[in-house]
Every structure is written in structure tokens, then in C-alpha cells.
Amino acid sequence: MTGPSVVDRSRPPGQSVGSGSLPWAIGQHAGDRPVVILDHAVAVTARERFSVDAVAEVVVRAAVGWDEVRRITRLVREKGADSIIVVGGGNAIDAAKLASACAPQEHLLELLLARARLGGLCAIPEQLWSPMPVVCAPTTFGTGAEVSAVACCELSEGGGAAYKCLVGMPSSPVVAAAYEPSMLVAPRPLVLAGAAESWTRVLGAAIASDSRIGWANDEARHLVARTGQVAAAALRAGSPSEDTLVSWALASASSHLGWALRGRGVAPFPLWFVANELSMELGVTKMEALSALWPGWVGAVLEGRDEWGDRARMDEMLEISGVCGVVDLVDRVRALVPARRARAALAQGSDVADVVAARVVARFGNRRPLSRRFTRESVGAVLRGAARRTDEVAA
User: What are the chain's domains?
Assistant: First the structure.
């Protein structure tokens, strides 16, 4: 195959906004032999609106597993591709990022798979980091996948339980993120979930961990306010305009591109790891799991279990968000993502809590990356506390 173009790691991903931004980004940053990856939900629309001379096309239909990454990686190599263009949501973008990393390095995929079998977090070694450039047009917002240096992949072998793997990267392989307004128009539940994810990511991190970098805390306050406004506006807006959705997507991406999450360790918001395992256990989305867990986490912070967060920081961040106390906080998250199925499962008894707590500690505990303070008892208490009624959270 032809040699891949190596990503310039001296700068963050470029961002372009407006109609025609994807063709412009492709012309500026994609190679002559790209592979195109499309989210199945937008594949027809993307083909109609954007013409790309690609060596191959892949349609991603579900959450990405290692077999899918292997298939795409093999295709990229066989076709002699020199770049990847992706149009879609987080699943499609994560598939593109993982393929861009693994295709140039013959043994990297098997190394990551071996590490994924041992734990939920695996990092790509710096010496094996020579990714192909990725140009992407996100069709949803909230995850920030189009600019982040992490990708999610599911592990399921032998018909047993499925697990979420989080792959950390030395930098983002995305060289350009193109925010095409017409492609960001999504069903209302996805818009609300995206608003919830961008807000809770920075809100949760600011409450759970204090940055060692003063400027990072200042930027986090700014983003908590901005994403809190987005969440409130999303609840009010029946059908946001294309320009509004682009603005919200840029606000979401800012938490990955800026300093807000820096200086807080590898696990700035521990509840995120619990939500990932609960989502895999119940077969729901990560945001449904996070919404269901919200009362348990808020209760843990209020009770002074400081491995989960700080009460004084919570009070400050709620005020910045324009939220009137913890009851309003829980109600707002539930309004954004109702999560009825996950809440019902947690309310039925302790079995789910015990199973998920064991999964979290086995996959992410003992400093991988959660500290040893996150025991089965600590995690299980949050899971069981998630069954509280809203009015019980502040009691």
C-alpha cells in the first residue's frame, strides 16, 4: 500500500463551519485515495449531497466492535487508501479514528484487543502512533468525537457479556471537522441527548475533580454556563435552526479542544465509567444510563463521599448552570433523557447494581483509571441510590 500521510500533532483538529465546509475540508486535507465511512442513518443523504472519488465506502450500522474495526482496517490496507472521510455520529467517527490508527501499524489492532481483554481502558503507545488523516462531518453533537483523542469500541467474544473499551490516543487523528448545517439536523431525542451529554460532561468533571491548572477551572466555569444554556434552550426549542445546532456542536467540542478538562487526571468524571458499564449491561445508550444514575451520584456528593465530587463545587456549578438546586438538576437531566427503561431496571432490586459494580471495578478499578477508592461498595451505593425519587435526593 502507499505510505499514509502522518497527522501533524502540533495543532488541534481544524474546524470549518457552514454550507460547503465538508467539500472544502476534503479538498484541503484528504488524500487522493480516501476511504469513505458513512453512518447508516445519513448514508443516502450524504451520497446525494457530497460527491467523493473514493477507493471504497463503508456503512456503519451499529456500535462498533473490534471485528468491524478489523474489517475496515483490512479494507483500508487492501485499497491502498491514504486518508479517511467520515460522515456520521460518534459510532462512525470512532470507527474511522480506530481504523486510521490501526491501518498503518500492522500489529496495533491485536495489541489493543489484547489490552481490551484485560481492562476497559487501553492507550495507543506513542511509538506506534502514525495515523492516517481523518476528515469528518459530524451529524450529531454531544460526544465531541469529531475532535477528541479517544474512541469507544465494544468487546464481545464467545457469546458472553459485551464490554465497552475506551481507546486513548496521543492526539486526535482528525485533521478537519466540518460542521455542515444541513447534516446536523437530527430527531429531537438525539438533540436533547446531545445537549445533555455536552453539559453533563463538563459539569460532572468540574464537580468531581478540581484541576491543578487555574485557567482550566476558569474555562470549565465558562463552559458549564454555556452548555447549561444549551441544555435549557434545547428543552425549550421544538425544532432548533441549523445555525443553532452548529453553535451547540461547537460548544460541545470546546470541552475537548480547550483546557476545561485538563489537569483532572485520566478520569475527571468517574460516573462516566459506571454509565458505560450500565449501558452495556442493560443494552441502553450511555446517556440513558447516565441519566438513570444521576440521582445516585448527586446523593453521593451530598453525603460527602468525596471520591464522587465536592459539595461546594456542586453548589457553585449549579448556580453557574442556572439550576435551582439539586432537585431541579435531577429533573432537568431526566427531562433531557428520560431513561425509563434503565431507571426501571435499577428500581427492581440490587442484582443489577451488584453486577455492574463488579464490572466497573474489574474493568476500570485499581487505577485503570479509577482510584482504589472506587470499590464495589462505593460504586454499588451509587447504583442503588439511582432508584431514589427526585424528592428524596436532597432529603
Answer: 14-106+115-183 (3.40.50.1970), 188-393 (1.20.1090.10)
